[in-house]
Automatic annotation (TrEMBL):
Keyword field: Thiamine pyrophosphate
Recorded GO CC terms: acetolactate synthase complex
Gene3D superfamilies referenced in this protein's UniProt entry, alphabetically: 3.40.50.970, TPP-binding domain
Domain named Thiamine pyrophosphate enzyme N-terminal TPP-binding: residues: 7-116
UniProt protein name: Acetolactate synthase
Organism name: Nonomuraea cypriaca
Length: 557
């Protein structure tokens, strides 16, 4: 009696299924088609895109939205190199995803086979794990190993190359190691050092002017409820960045946004949760030198990097915040109530900054003031709208104004600053959460990088609302060039054509409009929402104004 056999591609699909992967993002190639065959049998959806960078970004986005690892599958050589940017973005953003790349047959190793490149060598610096699968029997085993490595410390991407003959070969089923779902990964939730949590509780009990920054790991750890309980029980003003935006809803008495610099200058206790001291934090120099600084992070290597701290705690943000709040509650006395004056002080700064900007948010100027555009978008968002920012200057404007209404409803590339993520993130967000509305604000430069995958959105019936803030320029770079070299050299290498992206959307089967009058922004957004199609509202914004964040970038000083 012949034993049952199984191919390498089907082993990949079984391993993906065991990890809970429901979809792969891919661009086809001869090296990888047996994986597709396996995915069909395992009920895993195959979404084929028009560029491998989009496939990798979509896997990253899927991980952020669902909390499960994303997966992209690309062919060898240029297929894999095209995906490098998406993997690098996930690496800097701490997003767990697996990229599987094809490779020439092992039997042709070093012979110059089609699309042969040293993929593992290239991927090693930008992944948590990169390896070649050496035999068909080991395929599922090494896929599960790659997923395990994605969650070691702060999450991140893994890469596997699988030679064509390893994928295509069939082996007896009993000889293949197929790890069982739920039995090859331990819980990664670490509660932090109990002594350190006791110290944090004491600091909280005695602080007069505390402040907390809730970063991306608050969403990574699904620590929203713990963070909300913490700030309310201890009466601590909260600032949010990255995927941490939306932890508190707009209007919440502990939700602050525009007074962060003031708070970090005046606070006596600053708690940084899940955010490194990188360029976004001025490498830690923006925190008061006299404040007590506490840093909580999943990754030991991030704690105290670039700036000394008074207390560092490694572990899960939710468990640590819950434990600290519980420990502090019994010793805080009336200190929390006494912080009302501190919150009132910050609210006054917040209100002043908001009112200063209001005239521009309501500006009727043409070309349209970017502040008016992002104001209209913010007013348009619902509690079920996932907001995505993909661009330079226009998205910098939105960072000051747009406030997601719910946790996990803000997506941006993260610290790599990658343009071109928007279409892929919208694809992943809508595919994973069809009950949600998805709105993506593009710069025209960012959209043009990966915009052809608008057709993929149409093909797979993934409606979303796309808004292009169009100034026919890479305006963030243009500002820096003009500032450094003078206006006469300000348009070298950064000026784009006057493209009617609304017409582009219609060409590909979606909904599109052109908007030049600010009064037409909201009606156009409403029509896009009602269309039920992938859409692009092309809004012509003033190219002669720049976001404060653009003008303050240190690279232009």
């Amino acid at each position: 009696m012949m034993s049952e056999t199984i191919s390498g591609g089907h082993l990949v699909a079984k391993a993906l299924k065991a990890e809970g992967v429901e979809v792969i993002y891919t661009l086809c190639g001869g090296h990888i088609i047996d994986i597709y065959d396996g995915c069909v049998d395992e009920g895993i959806e195959v979404i084929d895109v028009r560029h491998e960078q989009v496939a990798a970004h979509a896997a990253d986005g899927y991980a952020r939205i669902t909390g499960k690892p994303g997966c992209a599958v690309v062919t060898a050589g240029p297929g894999t190199t095209d995906a490098v940017t998406g993997v690098a973005n996930a690496f800097r953003a701490e997003s767990p995803m697996l990229l599987i790349g094809g490779q020439g047959a092992l039997s042709q190793h070093k012979m110059g086979s089609l699309q042969d490149l040293p993929h593992v060598d290239m991927m090693t610096p930008i992944t948590k794990f990169a390896a070649t699968v050496p035999s068909t029997e080991r395929v599922a085993d090494i896929v599960s190993m790659a997923f395990r490595e994605c969650y070691h410390g702060a999450p991140g991407p893994s890469f596997l190359e699988i030679p064509r003959d390893v994928l295509d070969a069939k082996v007896p089923l009993e000889k293949a190691r197929i790890p069982e779902a739920g039995r090859y990964r331990a819980s990664t939730r670490q509660a932090g050092d109990p002594e350190a949590i006791e110290r944090l509780a004491d600091l909280l009990a005695h602080a007069e002017k505390p402040a907390i920054l809730l970063g991306s790991q608050v969403w990574t750890c699904r620590a929203t409820d713990a963070a909300i309980d913490f700030v309310r029980a201890l009466n601590v003003p909260a600032y949010m960045n990255g995927s941490g935006r939306g932890t508190l809803p707009p209007g919440d008495p502990h939700h602050f946004q525009l007074s962060r610099r003031y708070a970090f200058t005046e606070a006596d206790l600053i708690i940084i949760v899940g955010t490194p001291f990188d360029f976004r934090m001025g490498y830690g120099k923006r925190l008061s030198p006299t404040a007590t600084v506490v840093q909580i992070d999943l990754d030991y290597r991030t704690v105290g990097k670039n700036r000394d701290i008074d207390l560092g705690i490694v572990g899960d943000a939710g468990l640590i915040l819950s434990a600290a709040a519980q420990a502090a509650s019994g010793r805080i006395g009336d200190a929390a109530a006494k912080r009302k004056s501190w919150l009132d002080e910050l609210r006054a700064v917040e209100t002043q900054a908001y009112e200063k900007r209001l005239p521009r948010q309501f500006s009727d100027a043409q070309p349209i003031d970017p502040y008016r555009l992002v104001h209209e978008i913010n007013e348009f968002l619902t509690e079920d709208t996932i907001y995505i920012g993909d661009g330079g200057d226009i998205v910098t404007f939105s960072g000051q104004v747009v406030q997601p209404k719910s946790p996990g409803h803000w997506m941006d590339p993260g610290p790599l600053g990658t343009l071109g993520v928007g279409m892929a993130f919208a694809m992943a967000a809508k595919q994973a959460r069809r009950d949600k509305e998805v709105l993506c604000l593009f710069g025209d430069g960012a959209f043009s990088l990966t915009g052809w995958d608008f057709e993929t959105m149409v093909r797979f019936d993934l409606p979303f609302i796309g808004v292009v803030g169009n100034n026919s320029s890479m305006n963030q770079i243009r500002y820096g060039q003009a500032a450094k070299y003078g206006e006469e050299r300000g348009r070298v290498g950064n000026t784009l054509g006057d493209i009617r992206y609304g017409d582009f959307a219609k060409l590909l089967g979606g909904y599109g409009e052109e908007v030049r009058d600010p009064a037409e922004i909201r009606p156009a957004l409403e029509r896009a929402r009602q269309s039920g199609k992938p859409s692009l509202i092309n809004v012509w914004v003033d190219p002669e104004v720049y976001a404060p964040g653009t003008m303050n970038q240190t690279m232009y000083k």
